[in-house]
Amino acid sequence: MIIASQISKSYGDTVVVDGVSVAIPAGGVTSIIGPNGAGKSTLLSIVARLMSMDAGTVTVDGLDVTKTPSDTLAKRLSILRQDNHISSRLTVRDLVGFGRYPYSKGRPTIEDKVHIDRALEYLHLENLSGRFLDELSGGQRQRAFVAMVLCQDTDYVLLDEPLNNLDMKHASSMMKIMRRAADELKKTVVLVLHDINFASWYSDTIIAMRDGRICRQGPAEQIIRPEVLREIYDMTISVNDIDGRRICLFYE
Amino acid sequence: MGFDSLYVLVQTALIFVFGSATVVMIDPQLKFLAETALLVTFSALLYRWLFVGAERSLHLLVLVGIVFGVFFRSLSGFMQRVLDPNEYAVLQDVLFASFNSIDPTLLAVSAIIVGVVTIIGLRLLHTLDVLSLGRATAISLGVDYKRTVTIILVLVSVLVAVSTALVGPVMFFGLLVAALAHYLTGNGKHAYVLPAAILIAIICLVGGQVVLERIFAFNTALSIIIEFLGGIVFIGLILKRGAR
């Protein structure tokens, strides 16, 4: 369980995260939604200790993220951000292998190799494992990064807009992989998503943010409602029941 | 990073304040250690200040280096202008990088310092690979980013300070060697890049010295040859980046 209490963060005079307290349950897929600038990515970065907070505390299974040694946390929690530009030339296999760094410290064992193979297989990257990252398409590269994060084998996997730059096919396969990781590997997956239909379809819990605050948290049925979405996004969104799932239409 | 200009400033200030007679009298080992310590302290302070807190870009670091470089150069330029011409001649002798006038008594101290840095560096090899993935990924993989970067920067400053204090400032050399090493190894693994860089550095220095001795018959300085080549590589790098 990730517990954040009273987190605040501001850049200069602009408050980005404003006294947020939230508990993200262990297990399942949790999506964070909200308009641009709501503080979603900042919140995720603070939880994953990539950014310092001005006030508040975050604990992951009782470990305070600012005080626990970084390499201990790296075995419990991993994060993937949106922009992953790498200057050195790496193959997919090299990159995925980095996911084992918290365990092997650069000296991979046979067990690490098993993990790397499993992660490559999980994201259907076996055929691409020898290719260099700069020879891949955006979607393939994104999958390689996700494979690295899964290879890190942490209980908590945090992904910041993992569907960026992915077409429909790859976006839905990415979400299926996340769903499988939560169901089969018992991971806690936390995603920042912009597409509320993906959030509605695949999440167990949705957290909605606006203006640096949490405005709603609950299962998809409670959040994906026209009146709630109006409160979050300030726009008219019609919600339709299709085969028992809630699908939003906002193209008008 | 303004290292060379700081070195020039330290030398100029020494002669300016104490006069060449006193400077020549100082124990060379003591002077060497003091110079190294000063250069390391300066860079550690600068880097600390730049890296404490939020993520800063490399461009900012380079810009700050340039600004500091100009600042130190102006200061030493001012002092050099006020200096007695005889004193200035002594100073100028010190400021030209030369591999022919190394003080042999300093070699043992330098070797020990470089050896210690190398051992620490070897232990960090894999961490360096992880750092090349970027700050966010490195932290996510459990690298204590601030601490590791500080250690590496201090190591780099020590190495730069030792070589500058030993032979004098050679610009572009580091850039030349690092770029060539990355280009030739073709991958980012530091276990390959670092030995390659060391070998290329030796080739450049010894090769440059051969050119200096055989072709120019000591009529020029090694740093001029290396800066000429380094400048060309630097321009090449910028053009290649621009073309992408």
From TrEMBL, chain A:
It holds the Pfam family ABC_tran. SUPFAM superfamilies: P-loop containing nucleoside triphosphate hydrolases. CDD domains: ABC_Iron-Siderophores_B12_Hemin. It is a peripheral membrane protein. Residues 2-236 form the ABC transporter domain. The keyword Cell membrane applies. GO terms for molecular function: ATP binding; ATP hydrolysis activity. This is ABC transporter ATP-binding protein.
